[in-house]
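User: Sequence recovery, please. Input:
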């Protein structure tokens, strides 16, 4: 029962006691009480309290003044004046007893003309008492959920704006801006994207009037239901998104598991159908017609984290974003590098060891990186260093190299060392590193290892299924007047080779990498080595390297 319904009952009850209720208001009150058990209980409490007061008032007056005084109209006129001018008296809040819900049927009574001041006074005092009781007996709506996170959230009711961690009561809510994550008492987690108007109905159900939500329901909360103007989605252990337009049209799509889609408005004949994983449906708000629609992976916000700034719409984790200092979802920066000697992530001008195009020897061993998702960087060499992780994983098939490198690992359209514009990166005449085409530059000889276990820990609801990227050497990389640069590329998982490209050069067709990853895989390593004993212009790049998520 919402705030408006409670207010209507209170106003109509006062008018009924005072005999000023209109026929239309009387019918409305009767309809409210007849259709809602909680409303009937509230009305019952109010009327019983007023009835008890009226009887008690008459008995007290008769005992104190006698019958003759009661019939004295002058006394009641004085009492009426005193009642209007007397100071307010605080009434101790009664503790109402729990009584079973009793539906009351109101029968219309003929209006009685008030002729006696006694009757007027009693009714007047009863109405005053009723207004006090309305506040005291006002039903406290049960809590059904909690606001577990939010990002830039604004609500229409600024006086009752919930904060992260607050419990949420049954009733209507209006999110006007931002994102909110609500965890229901039964365990379902719902991410709501503004603008959205919805009702929290119970610990295992909600009504979405308009807006977009994504519901993640564990096996402990099976049966969670999202009701809409045109359909209901009953969870069967799953994750699904729901988008309700202002005309009641409903789109829903299944990310995992399955759900029962129930079609039909209140009071109408209903039908249902099972919707399986990677299926989507549209329910017309006017006709109720259901049709299949295409899945849109990034249509719904599925996870948020206000601490890390995570807003996940199903996009893959970007390794370029991580090297730029981010969380994999767009919080990193462009034109960033990892120093091969100290593991620090920085922008232009950081590397004090830069000396033009000359070779830099070492480091001989791994260098831990100051980023939770990047384990280490290293210069690979069969003689000087085969180690590729801080846990001792080794690249046993590592070839002999010069044991030296020219450029730090970086992200962006050009090397950011010393802020000098050195070269742009191209594959098949398409520029990479800028304009929405992220690229990771790993000039030979260099390697970088990503910690998959730490990435999973930071994103526990996501499953990493593969590493994908396009690999090649920049089109504009040459050495001398006739010779083309040549390099090798390796993809390792826990030190074992999962993919490679030997003798790759700028005119080679870019290689598509698609390496399957399992839950037990710990480290992903990308390595480039010189094939010909020369590192000049070995401008190797991984174009749009991502971890595929589900």
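Assistant: Recovered sequence (550 residues):
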């Amino acid at each position: 029962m919402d705030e408006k319904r409670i207010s209507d009952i209170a106003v109509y009850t006062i008018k009924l006691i005072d005999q000023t209720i209109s026929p239309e208001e009387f019918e409305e009150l009767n309809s409210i009480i007849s259709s809602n058990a909680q409303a009937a209980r509230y009305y019952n409490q109010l009327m019983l309290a007023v009835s008890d007061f009226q009887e008690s008032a008459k008995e007290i007056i008769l005992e104190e003044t006698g019958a003759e005084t009661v019939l004295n109209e002058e006394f009641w006129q004085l009492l009426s004046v005193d009642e209007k001018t007397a100071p307010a008296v605080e009434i101790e809040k009664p503790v109402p007893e729990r009584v079973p819900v009793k539906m009351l049927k109101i029968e219309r009574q003929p209006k009685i003309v008030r002729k006696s001041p006694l009757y007027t006074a009693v009714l007047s005092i009863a109405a005053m008492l009723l207004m006090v009781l309305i506040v005291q007996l006002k039903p406290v709506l049960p809590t059904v959920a909690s606001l577990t996170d939010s990002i830039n959230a604004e609500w229409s009711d600024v006086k009752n704006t919930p904060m992260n961690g607050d419990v949420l009561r049954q009733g209507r809510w209006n999110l006007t801006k931002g994102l909110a994550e609500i965890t229901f008492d039964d365990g379902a987690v719902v991410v709501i994207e503004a603008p959205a108007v919805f009702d929290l109905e119970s610990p295992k159900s909600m009504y979405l009037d308009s807006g977009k939500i994504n519901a993640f329901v564990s096996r402990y909360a099976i049966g969670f239901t999202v009701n809409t103007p045109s359909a209901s989605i009953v969870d069967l252990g799953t994750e699904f998104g729901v988008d309700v337009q202002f005309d009641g049209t409903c789109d829903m799509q299944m990310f995992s598991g399955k759900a029962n889609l129930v079609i039909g408005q209140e009071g109408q004949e209903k039908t249902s159908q099972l919707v399986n994983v990677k299926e989507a449906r549209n329910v017309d708000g006017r006709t109720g017609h259901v049709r299949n629609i295409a899945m849109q992976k990034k249509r719904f916000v599925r996870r948020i984290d206000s601490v890390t700034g995570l807003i996940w719409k199903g996009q893959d984790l970007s390794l370029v974003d991580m090297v730029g200092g981010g969380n994999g979802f767009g919080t990193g920066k462009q034109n960033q590098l990892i120093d091969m000697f100290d593991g620090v992530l920085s922008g232009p001008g950081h590397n004090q060891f830069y000396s033009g195009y000359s070779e830099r020897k070492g480091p001989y061993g791994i260098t831990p990186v100051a980023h939770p998702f990047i384990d280490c960087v290293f210069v690979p060499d069969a003689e000087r260093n085969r180690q590729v992780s801080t846990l001792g994983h080794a690249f046993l098939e590592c070839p002999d190299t010069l044991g030296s490198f020219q450029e730090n690992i970086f992200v962006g359209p050009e090397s950011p060392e010393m802020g000098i514009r050195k070269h742009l990166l191209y594959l098949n005449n398409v520029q990479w590193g800028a304009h929405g085409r992220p690229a990771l530059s790993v000039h030979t000889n260099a390697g970088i290892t990503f910690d998959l276990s730490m990435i999973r820990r930071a994103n526990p609801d996501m499953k990493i299924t593969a590493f994908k990227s396009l690999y090649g050497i920049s089109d504009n990389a040459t050495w001398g007047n006739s010779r083309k640069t040549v390099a090798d590329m390796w993809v390792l998982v826990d030190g074992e080779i999962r993919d490679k490209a030997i003798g790759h050069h700028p005119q080679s067709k870019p290689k598509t990498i698609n390496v399957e990853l399992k839950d037990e895989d710990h480290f992903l390593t990308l390595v480039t080595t010189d094939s010909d004993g020369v590192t000049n212009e070995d401008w190797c790049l991984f174009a749009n390297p991502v971890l595929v998520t589900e």
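The chain has three domains: 3-136, 143-293, 315-549.
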